[in-house]
Amino acid sequence: MKYAVLDFETTGGQATDEIIQVGLVIIENDVITERYSSLVKPTIPIPPFITSLTGIGEEDVKSAPSLEDVMMDMQRLLYDSALVAHNAGFDAAFLQRALDTCGYMPFSGPVLDTIDLLTILYPSLTSLQLSNVSQELDIPHERPHQADSDAEATAQIWLRCLQKLDRLPLLVVQRIASLFEDDRSNNDLAWFLQEMLERKEAEVSVDEDSYKYYRQFAMNVDEWGNEEEIRSKEQGDELQIPFDHFYDGLKQRLKEKFNYYEERESQSQMLEEVATSFDNDQHLMIEAGTGTGKSLGYLIPSLYYGIREDKKILVSTHTINLQEQLWTRDIPVLQEIFPVPFQAAVLKGRSHYLCLRKFENKVNMQDFNYPTNDRITAAQMIVWLSETERGDEEELHLTGKGADFWRTVESDADSCLNRACPWFKKCFYHRARNDANRADVIITNHSLLFTDIKAEHRLLPSYKHLVIDEAHHLEDVASKHMGIEVKYMSFINSLLWLYRDSKNGQLPSLRSQLERLGEEMPGPSEEWCALIEGLYSKLIDIKDHWDQLSELLFHLVSGRISEAGESGQFVLRIQEEKLPAQWDELLKIEDNIYVGLGEILRKLDRLAQDLKDVQEEYELKGILTDLAGTVKELNRQRDSLRFFMKRTDPDYVYWMEASPQFKAKSLHLFCVPTDVSKILQQYIFDEKESVVLTSATLSVGKTFDYSREQLGLISSNKLNTVLLPSPFNYREQALVCIPRDFPGIKGREGEDYFVRKLVQSLHDVAVETRGRMLVLFTSYRMLKNTYSELKEKLAPAGIQVLGQGMDSYNRSKLTRLFQESESAVLLGTSSFWEGVDIPGEALTCLAIVRLPFQPPNHPVVEAKSEKLKKNNENPFMKLSVPQAVIRFKQGFGRLVRRASDKGIVILYDTRVIDTRYGKYFLYSLPGPKIEHMTTEQMVPRIKEWMEEEQA
Predict the structure, then answer these.
(1) Would you tell me how many other CB atoms lie within 10 Å of the CB of residue 125?
(2) Which among 344, 348, 312, 342 is positioned nearest to 329, based on CA atoms?
(3) 474 part of a folded domain
(4) How many helices (H) and strands (E) does the chain have?
(5) How many Å apart are CA 624 and CA 611, to the nearest integer?
(6) Is the domain of 802 the same as that of 771?
(7) Range(s) of the domain holding residue 738
């Protein structure tokens, strides 16, 4: 087979734009046989941003051949080829226009996109950008955005895809090809996969011994539940020694394994404190800054104590990222150096795992809501099944509508057949639970911790010892998970699972199966089909009512913009004494939903009961179980909507959020308990023998009073608190500059004047630091207002400006772009204040625009403030300041990530030196050099500091 791998550089992406460079690589019989590249002289100017991107300017193309000359050379190479390109639609469109312009027949061969093949064959690739794919697959790509280099990299990627297809089991290729047989929207991909299948079937011998085949799928796992004991009693007895003796031996093994290992005082202290807490059945609150090595600081004593005492230790993180980091980085190290073998397990919420029964049904029935996208996602997951051991969504990079597809095949309790499921012994969720039941240490997350509490402890194995990392998020997660919420799309999706149209949905599927029973059970079958048919219009009515209610609720919330959101979310609190005038009208619509949906769900329950006796005989069990799951979910949605609309519990705060961009479809209703401290006390701190809470930010002004009170530990006599010294020399590594004459936002000039001054100062500093600057905002509106002006001012200096919500909402993507750029300024809001790790020279300057106070009118803040006022307490000092200090410390922590890092922090908010409460912010920092000066003096001081660093 012959492939022509093509890449164009152009003056832009519009139909009026022109080609300025061509790269073409010919592959025949899986070998590169020819290369062609040329600049092209366009008839229109090359825009400056294209020159900046590609390095191709007017001077380069002045003597280049014309498009006619280039097309004459190219069209002979394209003959009898399949065209391959990365994002093929772009290059194919320019090719067809160029051929037409030059008087040639249009290209009539197949057009194939490397993005489709990469998505299917490399399901875990985190980015499909050409440069990132090249890097991930270790393919040289020296000149991105130059057509010859891009075409060469694309050709090498295509060859890798062909090799991967050859390595896959025949069954996998058969299943993928069968998915696209009837796909008229992507005929060329269907043709290609059929060609690859025929090539593979023609191979004489294929070694597929490493795969396990089950129900026409190739898998990478055996059945779970046949594991042997990993440790003998004698091995466990080896830990019956004092912890300090044990740790001395472990340190020696660490030094032998890692030449760079050095003992850190703060980490050693943490190890001792955690070990003591477990031994004495005490709780511990311990603040450990960046560089402490707190993961090992709690994992080592957890394993020592758990194995020695034969007790499970549960470790909970806030983010899935940290959960994965512990599993992939820290646990393997410990398994190598620990003196006895141990078992660790990761357990996430059930929706993170694939339900194999649902997926099998989806693929066999080709039940696709978005046929083009869903086929690609299903093919991707068929390949993934031949590789994954965990069946965890985190391993998959889902694109387009992939996330929607996942929701239809994720594991859930309501539709689980348990031991009656033909996939039970392969089930990823039950495998994870089995591993957790056998493990010495279980790594989970805060969300599952509270889901388990709500499920009366039916999800997690029994445990009495708990480590909570990222503990500053515990109260917030508890509020969210002990509360109730309703999303527009979740409600709609649940309805659409039942009935999308007369052919798609659980009810039409059940109806078609019942019709097949007509000959054997004509009477009951007709009756059941008629019942289902009668529900369709009622479900459409419910959807119409929900759409109407959502539109009216959105109308109420629209215009009430909150600065708390990253994209300017609308937010409105619903209070009894301030109910909107039309609330009674809304209650009537909600009542129609409540009553109407209740009637539908009762009929479906009765139908399920009627079919119970024949479900085994007529293979209805799977679809009836899925249907029962949807019924339970809709019951929950219905009850949650009523709870919000009626506001039956006075100890909850109720509010709505929506996006200006997606309007009613983004509607989100929240009901959250105002105070979760009693819940935490009852279900965690009183229930567990020992709980270790750790984070880089638990103290405010060197005390733990605020965190203790929020978590219900203010009067606990079981709690020890420890503030560990930082392992970094902040006095030498960080300079904090406060421009004391910088304007505030309130007063005569206001925000516009502040932004003008901010843009000028950021420009001056960025020029001095050559970019390498992260700017943290608390207001998305202010970020937007700063972005365009700063971008324009820094362009002549060759400094790129990246803005959250401007260039991308994806934090990981923005961080990667920032690190890859030689000189860039990155503007971020909420999510950039923590969890962003940019070590080394990529980040030299951190600018904090405003102190991170939560908006006082945010519903939860407002409700908590009202409660404090009733108790004659000052909500600003008791709540707002401590919250802001913890957030501020998280933001400050972005600068110094390693002992070798050095840089500048600029605080543009002079309230840190002008107000009584400002001292709490500065006093909470880990000892950097703090200087205030005029704005004019700041750049010279920064220059002096950077020169000191170089000296």
Answers:
(1) 18
(2) 344
(3) no
(4) 38, 25
(5) 9
(6) yes
(7) 730-950
